[in-house]
């Protein structure tokens, strides 16, 4: 396991701000490599969806996004997805970029969304909320997001302004 040394040098030469290094040090202290799968399992707080979280400057960040940013570059405008399907994994080699629409399609094909039965009383899960928040930050409109999740635009608006789902 030579991962830390080589990648760290690469990272430091690329970006060198104090906050970044502090965040990186905390990140490096927050996972355990799993020798069989190669997954880096997050050992700190995970949200209810199973994704690792790390507080940076008082803001909760998704650990897989941080990993991608540290090792591969800023995933700005895109979702960070797992090839290993282990949500708490932060090994950058197991992460790839997909767009938010692709992410939604993947969810469908894996059967996480039951289409058709949820028109009237759509129930959102915490993973949905994460994807919704990401979609909001990417500039999707409340109506277009709402259509996808079969909820009204004002529901999305409530999530956006943290009237609901404040804890995520
Ligand atoms: Zn993994």
Provide structural commentary.
The protein has 168 residues and is of the alpha+beta class. It has two domains: 3-98, no CATH class; 100-160, no CATH class. It is 42% helix and 13% strand. It contains seven helices and six strands. A two-stranded antiparallel ribbon has the order 1-2. Strands 3-4 form a two-stranded antiparallel sheet. A hairpin with a 6-residue loop joins strand 1 (31-33) and strand 2. Helix 6 (142-149) packs across helix 7 (153-160). The N and C termini lie far apart (34 Å).
Question: Could you list some keywords that capture this structure?
Answer:
single chain; alpha+beta; 2 domains; two-stranded antiparallel ribbon; 7 helices; 6 strands; globular; disordered N terminus; binds zinc ion
The dominant shape is: globular
Average of the residue pLDDT scores: 76
- The residue fraction in helices comes out at 40-55%
Structural class: alpha+beta
Task: Tell me the strand order in the biggest sheet.
Answer: 1-2
Tally of separate domains: 2
The number of E-state strands comes to 6
What is the subunit arrangement here? single chain
Series of secondary-structure elements, N-terminal to C-terminal: HHEEEEHEEHHHH
Alpha plus pi helix count: 7
CA radius of gyration: 17 Å
How many angstroms does the end-to-end distance come to?
34 Å
Write the layout of secondary structure elements.
Layout: H1 3-14, H2 18-28, E1 31-33, E2 40-42, E3 53-56, E4 59-62, H3 63-71, E5 79-82, E6 95-98, H4 100-109, H5 126-137, H6 142-149, H7 153-160
Antiparallel strand pairs: 1-2, 3-4, 5-6
Helix pairs in contact: 6-7
């Amino acid at each position: 396991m030579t991962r830390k040394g080589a990648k760290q040098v690469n990272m430091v030469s690329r970006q060198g701000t104090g906050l970044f290094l502090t965040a990186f040090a905390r990140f490096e202290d927050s996972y355990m490599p799993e020798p069989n799968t190669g997954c880096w399992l997050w050992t700190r707080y995970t949200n209810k969806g199973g994704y690792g979280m790390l507080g940076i400057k008082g803001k909760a960040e998704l650990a897989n996004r941080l990993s991608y940013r540290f090792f591969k570059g800023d995933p700005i405008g895109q979702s960070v997805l797992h090839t290993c399907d282990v949500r708490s994994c932060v090994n950058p080699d197991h992460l790839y970029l997909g767009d938010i629409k692709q992410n939604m399609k993947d969810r469908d094909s894996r059967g996480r969304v039951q289409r058709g039965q949820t028109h009237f009383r759509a129930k959102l899960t915490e993973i949905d909320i994460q994807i919704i928040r990401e979609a909001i930050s990417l500039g999707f409109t409340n109506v277009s997001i709402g259509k996808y999740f079969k909820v009204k635009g004002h529901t999305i608006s409530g999530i956006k302004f943290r009237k609901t789902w404040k804890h995520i």
